[in-house]
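Convert to structure. Protein one:
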Amino acid sequence: MTEQTNGAAAQGEAGAQFSLQRIYVRDLSFEAPKSPEIFRQEWQPNVALDLNTKQKTLDGDFYEVVLTLSVTVKTGEEVAFIAEVQQAGIFLIKGLDAQAMSHTLGAFCPNILFPYAREALDSLVTRGSFPALMLSPVNFDALYAQELARLQQAGEAASQSQH
């Protein structure tokens, strides 16, 4: 029984493999166009968050995934600040079928990067002398599923318009 278990584990190790190689900030940007006047106004922030991911194949089984968080905060009609971080990671991924690879790159990797991006963004905002920006957790699996559904609908609409 032990030999069979060890054989199965070795076979599993030869199959799928996932390893985080490096996490880094690829780009960082902060702008407070109305400072210092904005600090003298009543603070009633309206936060708009834009979130994007992109993937790039590197050499062999290495992939770069970049998670971009862009935040625009207004108080009233005035832009208080615009902050953006591109948090990236290099991942070794092999032995996955196309569907599992797509999910890993589109949801699993961004989920790993998000806490780092959120911390970098929060640090950037506080260095600009604004209150901490504590972003809520993001469900990347749900976003990935929504994107797949959107692409499927777009594909169906395109095929119907061709007939």
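Protein two, convert as well:
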Amino acid sequence: MRFAKGHGTENDFVILPDPDGLLELGPATVAALCDRRAGIGGDGVLRVVRTTALLKTEALTESARSAERTEWFMDYRNADGSLAEMCGNGIRVFARYLVESGLQDAGTFDVGTRAGARPVTVEADGQVTVDMGVAQKLGTGRVRLGGADLSGERVSVGNPHLACPVGTPVAGVDLSEQPAVDPGQFPDGVNVEVFREVAPGTLEMRVHERGSGETRSCGTGIVAVAAAATPAGEGATWRVRVPGGECTVFLDAEGARLRGPAVIVAEGEIRTM
């Protein structure tokens, strides 16, 4: 089985080229691939499949139907094998892989996801910008992290987030255990972010991703905290620092755009797991 490895601000992924949709990716296989000791290692798997091939085996939800017009679909799986609707770092890495593999010309094109079609722009300087759509604020929520109760803003970026502001450096927050949340508010689980404004226009953030645990970065989480930090009805540009680097979020009436690096670091072959 051919693979590539890539990352966006050190949120890393195993990339599986499967244009015709022939691979069978059960949760056990995905978890084995993402195992950092016995597998390749990654926060998730990006299967590169033609949308027409994916649609032979999977029906998209009504909200994702715009993806049906795209040529390439980002079939994203969390490290535990569970499906995810969207991944902001993953889609930038996915787009970089398409261009470097000759499957897509550089510039602006659409990528299909389970959150719908997402326009991406692969730039000459190594940065990739993705249109993330509208980040929807859904009201307050609560979480218990490392023995402490925090409140935050529930935000949908195609997938669910709880963005919690803190008054002290985010490095001091315990993200080692599974966050405890209200299943009534988050029936499908939730990505939990803690964030703090460290300078005008600059946020720092850490994240615990559902299905993966704490990661070095989360693109949709970066957008979620930027939205949570922006007063309702206003636009803003935020630099968001994560343990793995920095991205920029542009918020306006049209929605959110996420800009950051995407790097392919290796290619090779692995025995089927």
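The helical segments are 27-34, 51-54, 88-100, 219-229. Residues 88-100 form the longest helix (13 residues).
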